[in-house]
Amino acid sequence: MTLHKDKALDRLAGIGNVAQFIAWRPEEGELRQSYSRLIGRDANAEFVSIAEAAGALLLASQDGRVNIRSYLPDDPRSREFVYGLTRVEDVLLHMERLAAEGLHLILNETIDVGDGGVSGVAHDAIIEFAPDDTPRAVEKPDIASLPRDMGLAILEQVYGFAPDIPGDARDRVEFSIHPGPRGWRQTNVLLWEIEADAGARTAPVPRWPNRFSRHIGDKAFGLLAANWFDAPVPSTSVVARRVAPFTFGRPTGSGERWIRTCPREPQPGLFTTARGWRDPFALLAEEDPDASQIASVLAQEGVPPLWSGAALVGADDMVFIEGKAGAGDSLMLGESLPEELPEAIVEDVVRLHARLSAALGPVRIEWVHDGNQPWVVQLHVGATQTSLHALVEGDAEEWIDFEVAAGLPALRLLLEQVPDNAGVNVIGDVGLTSHIADVLRKWGRPARLNRD
């Protein structure tokens, strides 16, 4: 039997935390209070009048705003929803109007979905969520869709507490997670609906970019994923625009810090990576003054670089591993060429890449080897069309030459001007895993190699 929405909220409040609310049913021509949950009051505390109830809820609401939800008990769809009221007088006007239609009414506190937290659904082996939205975010594109244990671990790393999402394994639970205490029980997790025994769900293979990876920054999300799969990730502190600072990874023993800008989506070689400490707030102001591209800044413990490089999956599932002795900055920027790697270093990188690929499908990693093991300093998912002869396979009606020696800024300018029917003829030797190659792959149109 389907419960009335107010009765369902009452039951939900017995399981976990809910947004503060007061509910009424139309009986004998007038509204009679049914259930309520307010901070500091007993469950289902009664109020003398609607005006008293509205005033109490507005006072108890963290943001001083309330919503009115209207419905008919025999209709699963809600009727009108009035959002963000701040005055008792306005609440009374809308309540009177909706009550005249014979509707059941729930007055609840307004919850800010833009507070840096996330909303979503946990169901069996899967958890899905996004920032700046309600649990219905799962019906939209670009949701973060993760194995449940991985998703909960990442949320705990980012927000600093273990999200408590109750219910049996096969229950479908709509929730929201907030940086600060919210709702009747004043915890960080709010429950919105539980559908009991909703069936089985298979754990997905994680994919990004998604709305949550953009929220904290692409590099940060990739490293959190690598850390979850127990790959060696250097100790990393994330200074983000939308969430409080958080740290994960393991010590490298160097005691040195690198500063890495963390765009919302990959922007190979465009923003600063620097050895040593830099003011992250000055860096954000200088490189992204309108806050449109960089989500965070990473302060990462350096790895003593015996060898450094990258590995990716190309055409026909071929794995390319490139590197050089020492730090890999010049190799990534296309300023130096790959060197022959010792067999033991290659074997270590192959094992690390294979382990992450087994969990995530084809991946691209940037790595630093300290002589004992390779460390992951970037992780991205997906294969490429790269081969020994082309960075992006394909034919074009016209080919535009690009000299590798001109560098990354010149390549970015060129790509803005290349006609739609044209490809790029890359002249000069360059690493297949370099940022020059990455930029051309992201561009996505044919790019062939001419190394003669």
Q: How would you portray this structure in words?
A:
The chain is α+β, with helices and mostly antiparallel strands. 25% of the residues lie in helices and 31% in strands. The protein has eleven helices and 23 strands. It has a five-stranded antiparallel sheet. Strand 16 and strand 17 (319-325) form a beta hairpin. Helix 2 crosses helix 3 and helix 10 packs parallel to helix 11.
Task: Give the SSE layout.
Layout: H1 5-15, E1 21-27, E2 30-37, H2 50-60, E3 66-71, E4 81-85, H3 88-99, E5 104-109, E6 118-123, E7 126-131, E8 144-147, H4 148-159, E9 172-182, E10 187-195, H5 211-216, H6 218-228, E11 236-240, E12 246-248, E13 257-263, E14 273-275, H7 280-287, E15 294-301, E16 307-313, E17 319-325, H8 329-332, H9 343-360, E18 363-369, E19 374-381, E20 390-392, E21 398-403, H10 408-417, E22 422-427, H11 435-443, E23 447-450
Parallel strand pairs: 21-22, 22-23
Antiparallel strand pairs: 1-2, 1-5, 3-4, 3-5, 6-7, 6-9, 7-8, 9-10, 11-12, 11-15, 13-14, 13-15, 16-17, 16-18, 18-19, 20-23
Helix pairs in contact: 2-3, 10-11
